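Page 42, continued from yesterday. The earlier attempt failed because a stray header line got pasted into the input along with the sequence. Redoing it now with the clean sequence only.
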Amino acid sequence: MREAVTTACMARELFETNLIKLEVIGDEVNLQPDPFALVEAATELIRLGFQVLPYCTEDWVLCRRLMEVGCEVLMPWAAPIGTGQGPRNPAALKELRRRAPHIPLIVDAGIGLPSHACQVMEWGFDAVLLNTAVSRALDPVRMAGAFATAILAGHDAYRAGPMAVQQFAVPSTPEIGLPFSEGTDVGRQAFHQ
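This time it went through. Structure tokens are written below.
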């Protein structure tokens, strides 16, 4: 935690900005953030006048604590950094968006395909931070373009208000007002001709 605060202070002097992306890694295997040290570091940095953008998991309790200490933007992962797995816990990500409707949420890690980016944007996320998915593509420029298109499509879909998911089939065309209905004799005759 102390190293993160020191690095942030040096970066502020060098780049003359209070805006800092905060990563406090707690596990070197999956690069998962350390939730306890992350909240502690965010608290200290905010006290020092930084605007903190914390890299975190999608855990609601952690995210709530980060907001309570003053983080105005959250950067939850979709999956571990560099894996390209896409959203591993869609239910938790959607819940985070529902429970924190007014805070910008940027998906920060684990996105591998443009469809993953489109999906989180459809859920109402504000942005996607990419690196590995573009830099390791066979054609990075084309992949970056594909992501740009997917992100715009997902954002437009969210703003358009997707239909509610139904448990049972619902006819998409009402039968009222149709000239022929399969349920009538005339409808059956027309259908079988």
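Notes: The chain has a mean pLDDT of 91.
Reminder to self: strip header lines before submitting.
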